[in-house]
Structures are given as C-alpha cells and as structure tokens.
Amino acid sequence: MAGFRRGGAVAALRRIASRAPSPSVREVHAVQGVSFVAHRGEAIGLIGSNGSGKSTLLQAVAGLLPADRGRVFTRGQPSLLGVNAALLNDLTGERNVVLGALAMGMTRHEVRRRYDSIIDFSGINEKGDFASLPLRTYSSGMAARLKFAIASARPHEVLLIDEALSTGDARFQRRSRQRMAELRAAAGTVFLVSHHHRTITDTCDRALWLESGTLRMDGPAAEVVAAYEESTAGKGR
Amino acid sequence: MSLPIPPASPSASSAGPPAGHPPGLPVLPSDLGAYAARHGLTVSGARPRLVPYARRLWSRRHFVTAFATARLTAQYSRSRLGQLWQVLTPLLNAAVYYLVFGELMNTKDGVDDYVPFLVTGVFVWSFTQNTLMTGARAISGNLGLVRALHFPRAALPVSYALLQLQQLLASLGVLAAILLCCGQPPRLSWLLAAPALALQTVFATGLSLVLARLAARTPDLAQLLPFVLRTWMYASGVMWSMAHLLRDDSVPAGVRVLLEANPAAVHLSLMRYALIDGYGTAGLPPHAWALAAGWALAAGLGGFVYFWQAEERYGRG
To answer: What range(s) does the ABC transporter domain occupy (chain A) (predicted)?
Structure first.
C-alpha cells in the first residue's frame, strides 16, 4: 500500500529504525480460517457478496498474496487469469500483446507464434488498425477484450478466473465462453469468481460460499447457489 | 490435483466432526498439511532456492528487457519532443549545475576542462541516482503486476536498472559530442568507460534491489531517499574536484579514507579518467579499479540475496 506521507522524514526514519508498521497501512484480514480440499478435474465457483474475500482467496491460492497464517498446498503453479494483465496504457496494442505474453512467461518464439491468434481473438482490428494505436485510445470494452485475449492465450495447469466472463459485447462473450471451456478442458482444476449465478451453475460442479471472509457453505454448485440466493432474498425484504 | 488449505486456527483443524461441525461444510482430513504432503502437493508461491531463482530470472530476461523498453517508450510518449527528452533532461541538468557551480560559485577554478568534467559527473551520477530512485518504487509501484502474475520479483528492479542504463547510453552519446566540441578527439582510453560502467551498473542494481525490498515494506523510504541521495551527491564530487579537496593536508585521515572509498566517487573518477584527456591518474583514488570491483561484488551479490530472501512476501505490500 502506498501510504500518504505522515509526519515527514523524521517520523519515517524512526519507523524504519524500529521496523514498526507504517500508520498508513492497516492490515485487513479479508479471509480467515478457510479450509477446503479441491480435486483434479473439479470446477469450483466462488460466490459471496462484495468484499466477502473471494478475490483475496484466489490470490492466496495462486501464491501471489501469501497468507498471514495457514498455508496453501498445490500441485504445479496455479495461474490467475486476471482480466487486468500488466499492460501499459501509453503503449500500442501490438507492444502490449508482446509485453503481456512475455509477462505470463511465454518465450519470444511462443509470442511470435501466438501473436496473430491473440489479435484475431480480441477482435480489435475488426474496425480498423487499432493494434498500432496506444491502449489509452481504446474503448473500455476493446481494452478488456484485448486483456482477456492475452491472458487466455495459453493453457494453464490450475486456472483461477476472476470475473472474466462479463467482458465485451454479446459476440465476444460467446467467443470467450468457448475459450473458457477449452481452458477448463486443458486445466486440472478451475476456480471461478463470478457474480453471475448462472455462470457458476453452468460451468461449475461445486461452489464455495464466502461471507465476511469465512466459509459459509461448500457443496454442489446448484445447492450452494440456491442457499445463497435464499439468504440474500431474505435480507432484501 | 487437489488443493487443501489448512485452517488458521489449530482448533478448527483438530476439531473432529460431527460434534459442533458447522452445517454446510464437508468433513476434512484432520491434518491437512500431512494430507497434502501424502498427495505430493507443495506450498503455493513458496520461494525457490537461490540458484533456481537466479535461473528463473535468467529465463525471464526477455520480459525484463521488454518491460524496460516499454517503460522507456511510455515515459515520453505523451510529450511532443518524445524520445529527445532522454538527451535533453541530462543536458538541462548539466546546464543548471554549470550555472550554479561553475559560474556563480566558481568551483571551475583550478579544474581543467570544467565542462566535460561537470557533464561527465552529472550524467554518471544521474544514472546511480535514478536507478536507486526507480528501484525503490519497483515493487511498491507495481503491486498490481506482482499480485497478478508469477515471475521472479527481482525482474522489476533489474528491469528499471536496465532502463536507466539505456538512458545513460543516450547521454553518453551527447557527452561524446561535447568532448569533441571541447577539442578532445576520441582516444583509445574511452574504451575503459565500458568496464567502469559495467561495475557501476552491477553496484547500482544491487543497491536498488536492497532498496526495493525495504521500500516494499516501508513505502515512506521513497520519500526519504531524495534527501539521502542529495547528501551523497554533494559528498561525491559531482560538480567539484575531489582531488583538489584531498590535496589539502588538513583533511582528517578518516574522512579522507571515507571520501576516497565512496563508491559513487570511485565510479565518477574512473569515468572521468577514461573520457577526459588530461584528467590523468592524479584524479584517481588509490586502487580505484579494485574498489569499484569490490563494491560491485558486495552490492550485487548481497543485494540479490537480500532481495530473494523476502521473495514470497512482496505481494502483501
């Protein structure tokens, strides 16, 4: 967390010397005491209200946001399919494809081989040569499409997906659902965070329901979604 | 593949169902850690050993260079003069320092070829300074990237150091032009700039790895750093001659050793020795090359190991 400057250099020095946490940083335990076992071939949906800890749990499973207590054991390296890949707004689409693909661990050769299919899949060149324009000139839908195209360009062993399916227009959504099915087929285990309950029941066979960082329910997707919907409907009344 | 997470509280892991088992949750093996080990699972995001880590960093070298070039392009993409600023920024810096130190404070008296002397100093120091400044923000300024993708985190500070090296090479082109204008034809000793620069790059990268780790934990460090760096600059003889100062016998022996061993001063004098005709060995501190090599080795190796030790914690921010 990039904190604001408080108390100036002297106070900062004292904090550094004493290794005390900066007052601008407050630790929030977004997920607490969650335990589960996932098996090869399972597609697991994560549901819960905003801020219930779904995305944090995914990052912890990926090993990107290490847990304060407890551990995550996996086979292989889980990869997080964030729609927000590491791209630079001031660079052209072309260069972002190369940069993003390299960031995901592809070799130069692989990038060259997959480049055309990434651009084609994103569809950014359908309305003119947008690949040679900076990312900041793209509409939000176009940028999201390009990011999804880069992130999903290669198969993953364990796949963690955070709200990727609500990207782009209807046509792109159809294509991305298909790409998603392919990725699922290639991956051992898939985790999917989504607020669209249809997506969860359609693509997952099991679901975890998180509430305020704790696990409320773990079971067959249809049952968990039904219980979750019942509880939110009750609160709405 | 299976993926168990042992609970944070030991009571939950040892609590045997069915008494008190929360409804809606399946019954888990009592010791999930052992269960995971039995199925050959490893801790996600665990830090690799040092040598595999270095190998992994090497295998990501294309990302490191692509990231550096991309940042460099993006940096000036919105200004009208574009990449020209790469050269203009250090030139303007040198002009300001010439005005203040050369003309107003007259440090140029007694220094031969003051313009090349000053410009070399400013360019070479800017490289160290900017590497450390950007290195300190390499992790804290890229948390989004760190939390989204797997790669050896050292790639970020190393990439920023490479970016600064590219900037410096552009500046050195300008410097060569200035030297020619000042009536200094190219000499064979210019080649000595390459090893000097290599040693300085390793040193600055190592130190920026240290700063990247420290600032990832304490972002305030990035606020403090400019003051430290400015003090360091004034103590390193960027715009005045260290040799002139040390000719005075009133300088205490301890201070003399400190000033002469100062890595920034060593790098500056080596570069001036290589590039400026007439700077000569008189301006070099004793054992300059050995000192530069020692600093590079200590900072490079130490910085890399120090950074690696916190590898799995950078995502916490």
So the answer is: 14-237
Question: By C-alpha distance, which of B157, B107, B99, B105 is closest to B131?
Answer: B157
B1 touches chain A (CB under 8 A): yes
Structural domains of chain A, with CATH: 29-77+157-237 (3.40.50.300), 85-154 (no CATH)
Shortest distance, CA B67 to any CA of chain A (angstroms): 7
Which chain B residues are within 8 Å of A76, Cβ to Cβ?
Answer: 1
Q: Which residues of B touch A2 (CB under 8 A)?
A: 140-141, 219
Q: Which residue, B138, B137, B45, B96, is CA-closest to B238? A: B96
B317 pLDDT band, cuts 50/70/90, is: low
- pLDDT per position as a tens digit, A31-47: 888 888 888 778 889 99
Give the separation between CA A186 and CA A201, rounded to whole angstroms: 20
User: Would the CB atoms of A71 and B223 count as touching at under 8 Å?
Assistant: no
CA distances from B289 to A197, B253, B265 (A): 67, 21, 12
pLDDT single digits (tens) A140-153: 778 888 888 888 88
Q: Looking at the partner chain, which of A70, A89, A215 has a beta carbon nearest the beta carbon of B6?
A: A70
The pairing of beta strand A189-193 with beta strand A158-162 = parallel
Q: Which of B121, B241, B237, B115 is nearest to B179 (CA)?
A: B115
Instruction: Establish, for the pair of chains A and B, how many residue pairs have beta carbons separated by less than 8 Å.
Output: 210
pLDDT tens-digit map of B184-218: 888 888 899 999 999 999 999 999 999 999 999 88
B34 close to A (CB below 8 A)? no
Measure in Å the smallest separation between the Cα of A170 and chain B Cα atoms. Answer: 26
Lowest mean pLDDT among A220-234, B63-77, B78-92: B78-92
Given CA atoms B231, B233, B234, B235 in this order, what sign does their dihedral have?
positive
pLDDT in tens, B139-164: 988 887 887 788 899 999 999 999 99
Contact A134 B25 (CB under 8 A): no
Cβ within 8 Å, pair B220-A12? yes
CB contacts of B25 in chain A (<8 Å) are 215, 217-218
Q: Do A35 and B13 touch (CB under 8 A)?
A: yes
Q: Which of A205, A206, A199, A157 is nearest to A176 (CA)?
A: A199
Q: What is the secondary structure of A111-163 as a DSSP string?
A: HHHHHHHHHHHHTGGGGS-GGGSBGGGS-HHHHHHHHHHHHTSS--SEEEEES
Q: What are phi and psi of A118, to 5 degrees?
A: -65, -50
